[in-house]
Amino acid sequence: MIDRISDLSLDHASHRYTYKGQLLARSVSEVIGHDLTPEQRAGMERYKHGPDGWAARGTAIHKVLEHHLKGEPCVMDDKWSPWVDALLDESIFGRFRLLACEFLLVDERRSMGGSFDFLIELEELGVPEGKGLIVLGDLKTVSHKTGVGRRKPATAQLGAYLSMLKRLRPKVQVSQCVTVVSGPERCKVIREDPDDCHAAWEEAWSRYNLDLPDF
């Protein structure tokens, strides 16, 4: 496991990060989603709340994956079984060594916080520990089976995590970035080159930065 970043915390209710006692100005999610249209924001809000909303679903399934990665038991509502069964059947979660999960990151220059879902080293026969494929991943959930194929990868988001991780833990060499899309009875792993993710993130930051007010 890699060491956590000291003096960095996240308030889950407000989704705001604090570093060394100071509230950070923004999060990765805020930067990525800043140019969503009012219609897109309204659509997200419409399906967010309630026991079957995407917020509850995402929280439940992220929790299950976190416990699975840590080798811990997890109690969940049976209604999420179609998502969880397909998710945990994915080969990427078969033989691995956990390096980090639900890991908080900070970019002091940009006063920004973020957190990735998992960092694992894939175990391969004949490959010594520390020499395997290092995978940085983000989990997304969708409400319907057909939505799995339509869900786009979290390219820029993964690029943001990669950029911060490189500065904060430079010894970690990420080989592959993945978006894991979890739906009922179906799961898909989208693999991407870290350089492509990093480029997408810098482009997203540039668009966001253009809209920042000048002081």
Give the gist of this structure:
The protein is of the alpha+beta class and 215 residues long. It is built from seven helices and nine strands, in the order ββββααααβββααββα.
Describe this protein with a few key phrases:
215 residues, alpha+beta, Lambda Exonuclease, Chain A, 6-stranded mixed beta sheet, 7 helices, globular
Overview of this protein structure:
The protein is of the alpha+beta class and 215 residues long. It has a single domain, classed as Alpha-Beta Complex (Lambda Exonuclease, Chain A), CATH 3.90.320. The chain has seven helices and nine strands. It has helices at residues 28-32, 38-46, 54-70, 81-88, 147-150, 155-168, 194-210, and strands at residues 8-11, 16-19, 22-23, 26-27, 96-107, 112-122, 134-141, 176-183, 186-192. Strands 4, 5, 6, 7, 8 and 9 form a six-stranded mixed sheet that branches. The chain has a three-stranded antiparallel sheet with strand order 1-2-3, with no helix packed on it. Helix 3 (54-70) runs parallel beside helix 4 (81-88). The model has no long low-confidence stretch (mean pLDDT 91).
Break the fold down into its secondary structure elements and pairings:
Layout: E1 8-11, E2 16-19, E3 22-23, E4 26-27, H1 28-32, H2 38-46, H3 54-70, H4 81-88, E5 96-107, E6 112-122, E7 134-141, H5 147-150, H6 155-168, E8 176-183, E9 186-192, H7 194-210
Parallel strand pairs: 4-6, 7-8
Antiparallel strand pairs: 1-2, 2-3, 5-6, 6-7, 8-9
